[in-house]
UniProtKB/TrEMBL annotation:
<dbReference type="GO" id="GO:0006974">
    <property type="term" value="P:DNA damage response"/>
</dbReference>
<protein>
    <recommendedName>
        <fullName>DNA/RNA-binding protein Kin17 WH-like domain-containing protein</fullName>
    </recommendedName>
</protein>
<dbReference type="InterPro" id="IPR036236">
    <property type="entry name" value="Znf_C2H2_sf"/>
</dbReference>
<dbReference type="InterPro" id="IPR041995">
    <property type="entry name" value="KOW_KIN17"/>
</dbReference>
<keyword id="KW-0863">Zinc-finger</keyword>
<dbReference type="InterPro" id="IPR038254">
    <property type="entry name" value="KIN17_WH-like_sf"/>
</dbReference>
<comment type="similarity">
    <text>Belongs to the KIN17 family.</text>
</comment>
<keyword id="KW-0862">Zinc</keyword>
<dbReference type="Pfam" id="PF18131">
    <property type="entry name" value="KN17_SH3"/>
</dbReference>
<dbReference type="GO" id="GO:0006260">
    <property type="term" value="P:DNA replication"/>
</dbReference>
<feature type="region of interest" description="Disordered">
    <location>
        <begin position="225"/>
        <end position="245"/>
    </location>
</feature>
<dbReference type="Pfam" id="PF10357">
    <property type="entry name" value="WH_KIN17"/>
</dbReference>
<dbReference type="InterPro" id="IPR056767">
    <property type="entry name" value="C2H2-Znf_KIN17"/>
</dbReference>
<dbReference type="InterPro" id="IPR014722">
    <property type="entry name" value="Rib_uL2_dom2"/>
</dbReference>
<dbReference type="Pfam" id="PF25095">
    <property type="entry name" value="C2H2-zf_KIN17"/>
</dbReference>
<dbReference type="GO" id="GO:0008270">
    <property type="term" value="F:zinc ion binding"/>
</dbReference>
<dbReference type="Pfam" id="PF25092">
    <property type="entry name" value="SH3_KIN17_C"/>
</dbReference>
Length: 379
């Protein structure tokens, strides 16, 4: 067996010493050789092989540096996409994970002298969202892959469909208003009452007054419409009866439900639960966070309550959170979308809740059965 054979003690010792990451300043990128100390690096720089590589470098240095820069950037972003695709993370953490591979492209062979310059480059080119904090630079990966483009196409298609639905609903509402005006005119009541009711029905802002008038009629003995007495459902009436105004209000409520029902529900300020299977390995599965920002109606930028990390999650991978009885909720979909209310009770069998609206023109109105998906805890 020779002096420097593969299985000699000296060769084995050298391989053990070379195993793992060595100091980066003693690495020659052109020769792809790692030296263990300053003396070894100096000897390598004086070797013929290194001198030949330097001659090659001197013929076209900009092309070689650009090649190393492109490879470094590509490998760095590939690691970012694979390991921190949905999280906001310190740039130093990502860099330390990247250089753990002893065969990586070193930064001292690229056009960037420091990590800060490289991070700013990622921000300028739109590959990452860059933030400077007292704790250092933080980066968030911006996914521009084929899957994201496919989702963006679907969202644009949804937006076009929403515009068509809105136009259709507006036409339906106009037809309902015309029917309401005709029905009110057919009722032979006094001119003052006719004028008053027509204004109340046509004006959406006065819908609360209409409901108040209905409650007042129900609490009385009855009302006279068209010369005929229709008894109400109060204690003084023997049986329940529906008036033309009741039918009109029901139609208005249905039209309001159609106009405010959307296929997107995420909004700022609500507490949601992350249900993404892809984030289970990161520890975010079934964890709660606050929606800080809504991106293109369907994606929420969420700050997790426990870790304070910021994620971007599609609404299909989110779930509404129901607070305790007496808590404040936001109605995120349906006829009263955008209103705040107080949770009065929950019906676990039918997956719905009883909510009383607070503030606004519907202040005090009680909604008997609102589905869990239409309400969410307010942060």
């Amino acid at each position: 067996m020779g002096k420097n054979d593969f299985l000699t003690p000296k060769a084995i010792a050298n391989r053990i010493k070379a195993k793992g990451l060595q100091k980066l300043r003693w690495y020659c990128q052109m020769c792809q050789k790692q030296c263990r100390d300053e003396n070894g690096f100096k000897c390598h720089c004086m070797s013929e092989s290194h001198q030949r590589q330097m001659e090659v470098f001197g013929q076209n240095p900009s092309r070689i540096v650009d090649g190393y820069s492109e490879e470094f950037e590509s490998l760095f972003m590939e690691h970012m996409k694979r390991s921190h695709r949905f999280s906001r993370v310190a740039a130093t953490v990502v860099y330390n994970e990247y250089i753990s591979d002893r065969h990586h492209v070193h930064m001292n062979s690229t056009q960037w002298a420091t990590l800060t310059e490289f991070v700013k480059h990622l921000g300028r080119t739109g590959q990452c969202k860059v933030e400077e904090t007292p704790k250092g630079w933080f980066i968030t990966y911006i996914d521009r892959g084929s899957e994201t483009l496919f989702k963006e196409k679907l969202k644009s298609k949804r937006l076009r469909a929403d515009l068509v639905d809105e136009e259709r609903q507006e036409r339906a509402i106009r037809r309902q208003i015309e029917k309401a005006e005709e029905a009110v005119e057919s009722v032979s009541v006094s001119a003052a009452e006719n004028c008053h009711w027509s204004k109340l029905i046509v004006s959406e802002g006065a819908s609360k007054a209409i409901f108040d008038e209905i409650e007042a009629e129900k609490s009385g003995k009855g009302s006279r419409i068209g010369g005929k007495v229709v008894k109400g459902s109060g204690s003084g009436g023997g049986g329940g009866g529906r008036t033309a105004l009741d039918d009109l209000m029901k139609e208005e409520e249905t039209a309001k439900e159609r106009s405010n029902r959307r296929d997107y529900w995420v909004c700022e300020g609500i507490v949601v639960k992350v249900m993404s299977e892809g984030l289970k390995g990161k520890g975010y599965y079934k964890q709660k966070g606050v929606v800080m920002k809504v991106i293109e109606k369907y994606v929420g930028e969420i700050r997790m309550l426990d870790s304070k990390h910021v994620l971007r999650v599609d609404q299909n991978e989110l779930e509404t959170v129901i607070p305790q009885i007496g808590g404040i909720v936001r109605i995120v979909n349906g006829a009263y979308r955008g209103s705040n209310g107080r949770l009065l009770s929950v019906d676990t069998d039918n997956y719905c809740a009883k909510v009383q609206i607070e503030k606004g023109i519907y202040d005090g109105r009680v909604l008997q059965a609102v589905e869990y998906e239409d309400i969410c805890k307010l942060a």
